[in-house]
Write a structure and sequence with these properties.
This protein is mostly helical. 51% of the residues lie in helices and 5% in strands. Mean pLDDT is 82; it is low at 1-6. Residues 1-53 form the ClpX-type ZB domain.
């Protein structure tokens, strides 16, 4: 009788503990991190910042125009990254035969709007 090899257990990419040794493991793109490593990272960052509190994002009123413009550039880069990923998901759904109507509904837009926005990517 041939034994079926068990799949390797999920391990934290940072400490290598398997999922059964920790309370929670969170998956990322090709990586995993456990709750213990998240806690350690949080404490390292808090110590580095000299505060036990999580840093808060500055309000608009706290920023100068040049600081806002710098953040605007980073936000635009993030939006492009999200838009590219969204396009990949739509292409995969279309490859699977999902209709433009269903895609539009999921995005909260019309079938026509979904087609206009993404049809050139097929």
């Amino acid at each position: 009788m041939t034994a079926v090899a068990e799949a390797d257990p999920i391990r934290c990419s940072f400490c290598s503990k398997i999922h059964s040794e920790v309370k929670k493991v969170v998956a990322g793109p090709g990586v995993y991190i456990c709750d213990e490593c998240v806690g350690l990272a949080d404490s390292i960052i808090a110590e580095h910042l000299g505060t036990a509190h999580s840093p808060r994002l500055p309000e608009w009123a706290d920023l100068t125009d040049p600081e806002m413009l710098a953040r605007l550039s980073r936000m635009a880069a993030t939006a492009r990254q999200v838009e590219a990923a969204l396009g990949e998901w739509v292409r995969e759904l279309r490859r699977r035969g999902t209709t433009w109507a269903k895609i539009g509904e999921a995005l909260g837009i019309s079938r026509q709007s979904a087609w206009e926005r993404f049809s050139g990517e097929e």
